[in-house]
Design brief:
It contains 2 helices and 5 strands, in the order αβββββα. The protein has 125 residues and is an alpha+beta fold. A hairpin with a 7-residue loop joins strand 4 and strand 5.
């Protein structure tokens, strides 16, 4: 029952942010959803932004179900994206993350791995 309300609230908030960004584009940086490869030690993701090794980024992740994670990461590798895509693939390591956030992240990774293993076993039967 709560999920439809949260979905609607998310949609309304995104609409408000987009409207504010159009009204004053230089004053509001819009967050973007990005596919991220997550591990206990760092992140990997594709980006249009030009980054170089040793750059530091402040990262804000939201793990299901709405668990916010704040961290600082350091770029350890930059590679060009696949030929059909633009931008680059960036690998990072956590430079600064709260121990509680790291624990949440590790629990999330283990949970996803277990779910994938279960689904593979069920599909092979």
């Amino acid at each position: 029952m709560l999920r439809p309300w949260l979905t609607k609230l998310d949609w309304v908030m995104a609409l408000v942010l987009k409207t504010l960004a159009k009204m004053s584009p230089q004053a509001l940086a819009m967050p973007r959803l990005t596919d991220v490869n997550v591990s206990g030690g760092g992140l990997s993701f594709a980006t249009e932004r030009l980054l170089k090794k040793h750059d530091q980024l402040e990262i804000r992740l939201i793990l299901p179900p709405f668990v916010p994670i704040l961290a600082t990461v350091e770029v350890i590798r930059v590679a060009p994206a696949k030929p059909e895509a633009t931008g680059q693939i960036v690998a990072t390591r956590f430079a600064s993350i709260r121990s509680e956030d790291r624990e949440c992240l590790i629990r999330h990774v283990l949970k996803v791995q277990a779910e994938r293993l279960r689904s593979r076993r069920l599909s092979s039967v």
